């Protein structure tokens, strides 16, 4: 079953690349069919096999010979690994399917936010839809959804406060993203995810400042770090929180 999750993750990862390329351009994500970004030639099914096609073509278009961005196999591989880890963590369940879909969506959000410093509305709406589906699942399975709702609202309010106080130090997309993460993870794991995001963001920001690759007035998108925190909290957060609490 883990192998099946890996294969599905690789296939969906290929579709994520379509979203990452087409959403900023405002293009239809279904039509036309996949094509080379350089020469525009329609790709054959053999060119669309995740990872294998990139290796077979040696990272070049089979028609014009232009180099294919390594983003394509990397996204496919990362998504496949995430799907596999989620299955190993949660088993075969509706919960694992929801988390796998959310993990895929967050790859798209993270890359687009890194490139454009913008979280697109369509990804937020879909993320909220996933979160509400998860809340419905929790309601029917154990009836305890209040904590998840409150953690999402608390996360949103925290980012909103930062935006107001700093007058734009963060973006509203970050607030909506943390709302989604909070509804998916619940109180303790959301706090842990935010802690990981803050530490990672602080370390990267400090490095960029010290190395003079970024000025003091430049900004680093926080969305990718929130997403990193989500992945870490989802996969090992329970154990990390328990270990921390047991130390006191």
UniProtKB/TrEMBL annotation:
It is a multi-pass membrane protein. Its EC number is 2.1.1.-, 3.4.23.43. Its main location: membrane. GO terms for biological process: methylation. Residues 7-90 form the Prepilin peptidase A24 N-terminal domain. The chain crosses the membrane at residues 6-25, 96-112, 119-140, 146-165, 177-210, 222-245. GO terms for molecular function: aspartic-type endopeptidase activity; methyltransferase activity. It is found in: Cell membrane. Residues 101-205 form the Prepilin type IV endopeptidase peptidase domain. InterPro entries: Prepilin_IV_endopep_pep, Prepilin_pept_A24_N, Prepilin_peptidase/N-MTase. Pfam families: A24_N_bact (PF06750), Peptidase_A24 (PF01478). Keywords: Cell membrane, Hydrolase, Membrane, Methyltransferase, Transferase, Transmembrane, Transmembrane helix. Belongs to the peptidase A24 family. This is Leader peptidase (Prepilin peptidase)/N-methyltransferase. It comes from Youngiibacter multivorans.
């Amino acid at each position: 079953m883990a192998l099946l999750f890996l294969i599905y993750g690789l296939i969906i990862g290929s579709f994520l690349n379509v979203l990452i390329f087409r959403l900023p351009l405002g293009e239809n994500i279904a039509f036309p069919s996949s094509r080379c970004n350089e020469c525009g030639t329609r790709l054959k099914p053999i060119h669309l096999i995740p990872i294998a096609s990139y290796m077979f073509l040696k990272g070049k278009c089979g028609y014009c010979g232009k180099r294919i961005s390594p983003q394509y196999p990397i996204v496919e591989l990362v998504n496949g690994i995430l799907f596999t880890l989620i299955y190993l963590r949660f088993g075969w369940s509706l919960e694992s399917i929801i988390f796998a879909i959310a993990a895929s969506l967050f790859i798209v959000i993270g890359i687009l936010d890194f490139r454009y410093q913008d979280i697109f509305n369509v990804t937020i709406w879909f993320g909220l839809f996933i979160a509400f589906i998860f809340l419905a699942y929790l309601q029917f399975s154990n009836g305890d959804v209040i904590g998840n709702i409150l953690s999402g609202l608390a996360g949103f309010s925290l980012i909103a406060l930062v935006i107001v106080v700093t007058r734009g130090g963060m973006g509203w997309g970050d607030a909506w993203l943390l709302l989604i993460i909070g509804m998916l993870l619940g109180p303790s794991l959301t706090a842990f995810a935010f802690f990981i995001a803050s530490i990672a963001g602080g370390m990267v920001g400090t490095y960029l400042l010290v190395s003079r690759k970024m000025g003091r007035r430049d900004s680093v998108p926080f969305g990718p770090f929130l997403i990193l925190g989500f992945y870490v909290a989802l996969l090992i957060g329970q154990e990390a929180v328990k270990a921390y609490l047991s130390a006191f």
